[in-house]
Amino acid sequence: MKEIAPNLYIVTGAVAFSVPVFVFEVNENELLMIDTGLRKDARSIIKKIRTKWGSLEKIKKIVITHRHIDHIGGLRYIMDKIEEANKQANVEIICHEDEAKYLIEDIKVQDLKPTRTIKHEEYITKGVKAIHNPGHTFGHICILFEDEKLLLIGDTIMNTSGVLMPVFKKFHDDYKQYTKTLKVLLEYEWDYAIPSHNRPTKITREKIEKFIKKTAK
Ligand SMILES: [Zn+2]
Hints:
With 217 residues, the chain is α/β, with parallel strands linked by helices. Helices cover 26% and strands 29% of the residues. It has a single domain, classed as 4-Layer Sandwich (Metallo-beta-lactamase, Chain A).
């Protein structure tokens, strides 16, 4: 587990290079989880969260950047473990309103559904806002941490050994829409962005801007 910005942690699983979970410490009693990783990573992710925060009860919200399996695979396992820790846990499963109908289909097998849908620029919790940038999936969101001036960009950009590129075209719902909506990210104040794939690390705004100017249509 690594604290990549104040109160924001990257929790990786057991599988090399798989999508991690991000955990934001909203306050001493509340954690916000972003994505849930692969199912086979869930056990080791949960273990790390327990080691750091003692109990899973503090997880009150899980926000899904988008519905791809490497971001939602661990959801059922994680929800079960939270409910084992606290039967009254009323964890919100949050996604963008345009992602909901697809996510409902995709997590039906896990017997779950989103419990809250959000709109572009809606606050997930104080100081944490959803930025809708459709294309990779129709309801893909980036997560802006206003105080930390940091943007989690999900699968908007891949960072392969320092070279920024889009995710392969075949994994997009609508690649054209993706290139058209990239610029929305530059409308907000942030200094660093963090992608979900390939050992997530902070990327400077300058570097992201160059990528967007080159890729955006
Ligand atoms: Zn994806």
